[in-house]
# Entry
Amino acid sequence: MQTANSLWIFFALTLGIIALPGLDMAFIAGSATAGGLRGGLVAMAGVVAGGFVHVLLNVLGLAALLMLWPGAFQALLLAGCVYMAWIGWGMLRAPVGADEGASAASAPVPPPALGSMPRVFMRGMMSCLLNPKAYAFMLAVFPAYLQVTQRSVAAQAALLAAIIAGNQIVVYGAVAAAAAGARHWLGPRGATAGWMVRGVGLVLILAAAFTLWRAWP
# Structure
């Protein structure tokens, strides 16, 4: 297979996998719901950064080690699902807000529902790093495209990482924009926004539980 064709296949595979609903997508949607487009894009940046770390781990062989040692993969799966459920629980407990007729209703969603932007970035990165789907992909798909005759392993890894990041930016950026648009359309203020944040928190908890149920060996 020619290198150019293999890159297009890798592009299509990663695009399809990233487009599947999962914990990363749910976290980005929740961040955009709670903090608008800025919050969603910062969460997306954290997930993209986590993707680069995944590539580095795979090149170093740590991803394969996690998959070959079942206990480590189970611990990672449990930690990732618990972490996302904990974030969802924090959103679920966010204040609903004041009466929509009061002056407080014109205030933005309280910051505790989302946290500071650096914190959102780190949460996005941790969401990606604790995502068992990413490790499974890195073991099953990534190595087949890593070694080519035209480039060194480092250069090929950097190219594949760029493809992954580009797909993440396109897919997750669209998710962030859609969630932020829904937040604006439904009303980003007062009690409405508080209930939206709680709803996303519940989705995160359910997504974490579903992921644990489906992926547990």
Q: What stands out?
A: Confidence is low (pLDDT under 50) at residues 98-113. The CA atoms of residues 88 and 202 lie 6 Å apart. Helices lie at 3-19, 23-60, 62-68, 70-92, 117-129, 132-140, 153-186, 190-215.
